[in-house]
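Subject: for your reference before the review

Hello V.,

The reviewers asked for a structural picture of the protein, and I figured it would be easier to keep everything in one thread rather than splitting it across files. Below is the amino acid sequence we used in the manuscript, unchanged from the supplementary table.
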Amino acid sequence: MVRLKTKWASVALTAFLAGAVMTGCTNSGEKNISAAAGSGTEAQTSGGDLVQLVWYTIGTPPKDLAKVNDEINKYIQDKIHATVEMKMLDWGDYSQKMQIIIASGEAYDIGFTSSWANDYFANAKKGAFYELDKLLTEKGPGIKQALNPAFLEGTKVNGHNYGLPTNKELPQQRVFRFNKTYVDKYKLDVSKVRKIQDLEPLLKTFKENESGFPPIPAKIAEFLPFDLPVNDLPFFGVPLDTKDYKLVNVWETPEASSYLETMNKYYKAGYLPKDVATQNDAGDYFKTGKWLVDVADAQPYADNLWSNDAGYGVVSVPMHEPITFNWSVAGSLQAINAKSKHPEKAMEFLNLLYTDPNLINLIDFGIENVHYKKSGAVTKEAIPDRGYGFPAFTVGNMMLTYLNTNDPADKWAKFKAFNESATNSPLLGFQLDTSKITTELANLKNAKEAVYNALFSGTIDPKDNLPKVTKKLKDNGLDKVMAEVQQQINDWRAKK
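And here is what came back from the structure prediction:
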């Protein structure tokens, strides 16, 4: 991700989306439910050989997965002369199990991948996924028509596509998020907040009038205007307004220094938990309401989503205009196994997920009048204890899915406008070859882990510690890494 932060913030919005669509799921202990016979084999039918695709995807397997899978196969069989066996692997198990599946050569055709689970870029580089360029043209025209071009551009690896991003929010827009209860109670003006320093009068007012918990409940990270070529190493990058694409040491820039000094000031003032640097679990402050401000990544109508989840009002203000980064386009993809015996049929099935509203709504929400009921032409409401839930953000074209009854009618139009409004980051489409700097990257990651939380939570004074940190990074190969990355950026630009 192109910013300085801990991973929890980047996953916050996805977690809320996943929680929203998974409500009502049962049998969470069941790790894998197969819903149709076969494993990438052929079954004889009156019409000839019927291709049976195997699809691994992420999420807690719901009780009625097999029932829904049967309906999916009834629907697609005549359309593409194929069926699909859905194999859902639970959230915490997915990456590890997919590593084993890929390494063992187990037969499957389609699999979920992303920048945060079943590492898309690493798997594409090592040849685990099928190159899709030709298939997209021949069997996936609906996919190319549905997706904003930046989705496919930002997920290219060595100039080729190996995965199909979900059609959802495309860019990043980081926001300060506020508990409206206290905003209203103390008449706090949040409208002019754009950077971390702007929070000071609000934090001071809260601290003077409330006791028992700090206004900032957990680690936060302001948006810093740099494009990072290595997300896990947020100390070198290209400025967003770059003209020469030269890497800089982010931690030595005025923007980073100002942020670190401000966070240290806030920590000393008691605006953060005393144990914020070692905090593994911030607690469920969102449910308890014991917080004033945190940081999240937004999408259209995100305040409505957060307010519904919290049970009280949540309001947000953006730090910047929407920007499309490599990580933001790779948050959710489906890939075809490089060893699939049926890549054409797999692409035909995936194409339906971007073009056929009946199929994508069946996969996402289950069977009408069993798992949900329509409340309008394009709206639905879930049936309580319905036995089915699927993480809609993980697959296909979300903009073909039914709205919840209380969703604004223009929700998907706003998403499209949001995507179209985004500016591309300088390194969109650049993928680093780490083969020459593997040892140095590992050493730098260890060096970062030793100090990052303390430094960026404000727990330690940056004036005293940042020079020591910079020396340690250089001792562990920072200069060599930056030189190699710079050369690759130069080569990439020359080829473009």
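For the response letter, the relevant points are probably these. The chain has a mean pLDDT of 89. The first strand starts at residue 42 and ends at 45.

Happy to draft the paragraph if you're swamped.

O.
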